[in-house]
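Worked example 2:
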Amino acid sequence: MNRRHLLAAAALLPGLSPWAARAAEWPDRPIRMIIPFAAGTTTDILGRIAGNQLARGLGQPVVADNRTGAGGTVGALAAAQAQPDGYTLFFGTSGTMATNPAMMANLAYNPERDFAPICSFAKTAVILAVRPALGVHDLAGFLALARQRPVSIGTAGTGTTGHLTQAQLDLATGLTTTHVPYRDAGRGIADLLNGTLDAFVYHPLGLAEFIRAGSLQPLALTGEHRHFLFPTLPTMAEAGVPGVVVEGWWALYAPARTPAPIIARLNALTLAALHDEATLAELHRQGLEVMGGTPAELAATTHAELAKQRLLVKAAHITPE
């Protein structure tokens, strides 16, 4: 009996669907990992790390498919519409799974309905930094300045972790700062250094070389706890503004209705990868914190983040660029 006949026969067994029958033989060919941002971005780097580790455990290549555009929504939609057979995975972000759905009307995918959570991968808080010439040395000083005159805060785009930080800071303090979005962080940091901007919000690794050189002064971090790259830098709560907690995160998903045995195996392999010394070293080098957990925990995270960001976007009147 050939493979096709075996699958047909297995599908007739009580309680065993065609998808479950295929799951028993999965994978027997390469798997596609849709990455919703361009090659060389943090999302691309992490997605390829995850894919390479999964390939080792599965015995099949996991091929990166960079589907870019519209803030990650192009890739997310392609993944949502893919067959739920275990041969398409999606390396999602807090942007694609929470921010975009909270901000964009009539989005063509639903992050909870259209995806099967597999495993959380990594996360990072962001840092609010100023140039030393601004004359402030801590968050209290920056807020005092903002009460005296308008201040500008640059971010890498609209609806990003940086922008959400700026919005939360305004809501928490009652201040109104000027949001200045940039299409790439490099230009924003350049304007911060030359005095065009008062402050910039970005992830720790992207600011590390400037902070260590003394070119930038970090004021506070948006995480729930301090960052291992900057152990003396206070969180927003420690600096006197509780409630400003913003973290960007990455996680692995599959199209909804992907068979549960496949999801379970992918979760186990991802957790193993997150304990791999080489993976841990690379995540540390990127300034990222390891996550992990069960599919149910990722589902809960996705739900909570989506609800939180919907409230924030509404309260701050944030609209897409």
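The radius of gyration is 21 Å. Residues 295-316 form the longest helix (22 residues).
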